[in-house]
Amino acid sequence: MEASQAFICLIKKKRKGKKLIDKTRLIQIRCLKADFQTFLDFLGRHTSDLLSCFSRHDFKCLNAAFKMFEQQKMMFEQNVRKCADRIISIYQPHLRPIVRGKAKAKVEFGAKVGASIVNGYTYVDHRSWDAYNESSDLVTQMELYKKRFGMLLREVQADKLYLGKENRKYIKACHVDCYNHPLGRPPKEENDEHAEDKRRAVGERNWIEATFGTSKRVYRANDIRRN
Length: 227
Known about the structure:
Blueprint: H1 2-12, H2 18-45, H3 56-78, E1 97-99, E2 107-109, E3 112-118, E4 121-128, H4 137-149, H5 165-173, H6 192-217
Antiparallel strand pairs: 1-2, 3-4
Helix pairs in contact: 1-2, 2-3
């Protein structure tokens, strides 16, 4: 009851200061600790056969709850805001918060998918529930292309996120064409043919964005669940 009242008091505040947030977190942690201790004491007074009443889902949620409690306790005591494999849902402990910075949603939840399109066919090259920098997928995707087709690709078209210095060096070392905008200040005069290649590359790169939209809208990719 105390934890519920503290949470309701917090969310009703229009301006939530750090002091109030920390106080509410401390109350939540103390209440959770007391509840867990009561549960463990109950098991200690009775036989461990009581655990056989738990389903597989119950065990999964219980383990996630204990782990989440330890994570929140550690972050509060050390005054930090992140930890490895942070659990945000005891029912879906595999989910991780992914900061996107979009106007609609600053933080999103779900799997990150690295995909590539070759001659109209879409290949899922990487999938992860953890937050990571997608730029590391480019080298993997180029190597997978070579493994699938027995040769390096002729041209790569990717979002600017994938085209950092290291990836550009790798693309150049592989003698693969890339017509995206170069790093640094744009040139005063640009070759007309190169400018046309860049416009074409931008247009063709949009196919992957359209593929994600079609996969969600038509093939229900936004409803894929993890076992």
